[in-house]
């Protein structure tokens, strides 16, 4: 399930509830690492630019309806269509900062009542992150931030269920950062854990696959 590769990039994943600050922090982290001379890219899932991503986007905007299982598989397919490029980038030494990944897939679908084992199955074989950072905020506090838009999952009651699903998914390897701190304080904490992880990968930590 593993292979060794020296001086590769790190796969960094940011997770959390809607409005927890992932987009803001991804942008700042990208800018910082880029300015430090690291090879780095900022990614996000869903990637709405692919054909599958456009189906997902239309579903999230309530412009189309899909069975809960079907949309779950589309989110997963959207990661699979980027898998080989992801591996290529990491092996060539580029660090990827990824806003949402398989954990979002499992957390959001299991919050709808789908079986967690079923939700995890299509993710098996995707690359495992070297670091998962969870930006921790209560659903109530998140809802106060700039208000929710019109997208399908942007509702307090549903976000409460998602928070519960994330709690069930978290393991001790996740770095949890209080997302109610100032943007600057979060940024500082994030940099520390990310630089530490990048160093480990650079020293030859092997790439591995979900679910470890
Ligand atoms: N989904 C799924 O079901 N299955 C899957 O497999 C995947 C996703 C991958 C689309 O995601 C939906 O797809 C998402 C999960 C589901 N649904 N929900 N909910 P998306 O990526 O398009 O949307 P999002 O991830 O929820 O992004 P977002 O709303 O843009 O939130 P964010 O990126 O976490 O936060 P932000 O834009 O950086 O900040 C939000 C606001 O808070 C903004 O006004 C900031 O200025 C403010 N902010 C940020 N940080 C702070 C701090 N520290 N203090 C105060 N205010 C702050």
From TrEMBL:
GO terms for molecular function: kinase activity. This is dTMP kinase. PANTHER family: THYMIDYLATE KINASE (PTHR10344:SF1). It comes from Datura stramonium. Belongs to the thymidylate kinase family. Residues 14-189 form the Thymidylate kinase-like domain. It is an enzyme of class 2 (transferase). Pathway: Pyrimidine metabolism; dTTP biosynthesis. Keywords: ATP-binding, Kinase, Nucleotide biosynthesis, Nucleotide-binding, Transferase. CDD domains: TMPK. SUPFAM superfamilies: P-loop containing nucleoside triphosphate hydrolases (SSF52540). Its EC number is 2.7.4.9.
């Amino acid at each position: 399930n593993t292979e060794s590769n020296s001086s590769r990039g790190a796969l960094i994943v940011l997770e959390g509830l809607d409005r927890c600050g992932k987009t803001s922090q991804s942008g700042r982290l990208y800018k910082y690492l880029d300015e430090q001379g690291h090879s780095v890219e900022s990614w996000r899932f869903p990637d709405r630019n692919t054909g599958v991503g456009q189906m997902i986007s239309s579903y999230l905007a309530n412009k189309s309806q899909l069975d809960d299982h079907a949309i779950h598989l589309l989110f997963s397919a959207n990661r699979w269509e980027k898998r080989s490029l992801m591996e290529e980038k990491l092996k060539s030494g580029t660090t990827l900062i990824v806003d949402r990944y398989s954990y979002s897939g499992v957390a959001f679908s299991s919050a709808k009542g789908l079986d967690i084992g079923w939700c995890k199955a299509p993710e098996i074989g995707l690359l495992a992150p070297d670091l998962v950072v969870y930006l921790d905020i209560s659903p109530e506090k998140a809802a106060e931030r700039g208000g929710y838009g019109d997208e399908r999952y942007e509702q307090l009651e549903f976000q409460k269920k998602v928070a519960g699903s994330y709690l069930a998914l978290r393991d001790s390897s996740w770095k949890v950062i209080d997302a109610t701190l100032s943007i600057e304080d979060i940024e500082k904490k994030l940099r520390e854990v990310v630089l530490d992880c990048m160093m480990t990968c650079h020293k030859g930590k092997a790439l591995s696959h979900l679910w470890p």
